Amino acid sequence: MFAHTERFPAKVDALRTSAVVSRFRDATMQPVCAVALWDTGASHSVIGDKIVDALQLEPFNYREVYGVNGIYMSPLYVIDLQLPNGIKIEGLSVSRGDLFASDLLIGMDVIGLGDMAVSNSGKTTFSIRMPSQGEIDFTRVSPKGDQKK
């Protein structure tokens, strides 16, 4: 199991972490360090021009994408993704998009591989573990953090 917790010094309006992107099964090219935005509203992950250009990626296909700016055809690429704390996803199919304040958008295709929790008690704490270890049900947790039966 891989797990990662990111603690932000204040309450944040977006979950951003570091990530490393590399060409699919290609150790000859230097990986790219990226700023990743975690987005539960996105069904698939998206990379920006910085990553496409730095890794000299070539599309293998195209996909119809429903984005905030409408519907468009986007090239598809295959990458290897390393999330914080060694979480690796190999052979991830991603589309290309215009991203703001991040290099990579992590969608439900990645988030859905595990369990995620976000808490906001004056500051934001974001945790993810992969693979899933079971349901997280806050209605079954006592104020002390013990599981109710």
Please describe the structure with a list of short key phrases separated by commas or semicolons.
6-stranded mixed beta barrel, 3-stranded antiparallel sheet, 7% helix
What does it look like?
The chain is mainly β and 149 residues long. Helix content is 7%, strand content 46%. It contains two helices and ten strands. The protein has helices spanning 49-55, 108-111, and strands spanning 2-7, 15-23, 32-38, 46-47, 61-67, 70-82, 88-96, 104-106, 115-120, 124-130. The strands form two sheets. Strands 2-3-8-4-7-6 form a six-stranded mixed barrel. A three-stranded antiparallel β-sheet has the order 1-10-9, with no helix packed on it. Strand 2 and strand 3 form a beta hairpin. It starts with a strand and ends in a 19-residue tail after the last strand. The model has no long low-confidence stretch (mean pLDDT 91).
Compressed to H and E, one letter per element, the order equals EEEEHEEEEHEE
Please state roughly what percent of the residues sit in beta strands, choosing from under 5%, 5-15%, 15-25%, 25-35%, 35-45% or over 45%.
over 45%
| Main pleated-sheet profile | 6 strands, mixed, barrel
Number of strands: 10
Q: What is the mean pLDDT? A: 91
Helix proportion of residues, in percent?
under 10%
Query: Would you identify the regions where 5 or more consecutive residues have pLDDT less than 50?
Result: none
What's this model, at a glance?
With 149 residues, this protein is mainly β. It has 2 helices and 10 strands; from the N terminus they run ββββαββββαββ. Strands 2-3-8-4-7-6 form a 6-stranded mixed beta barrel.
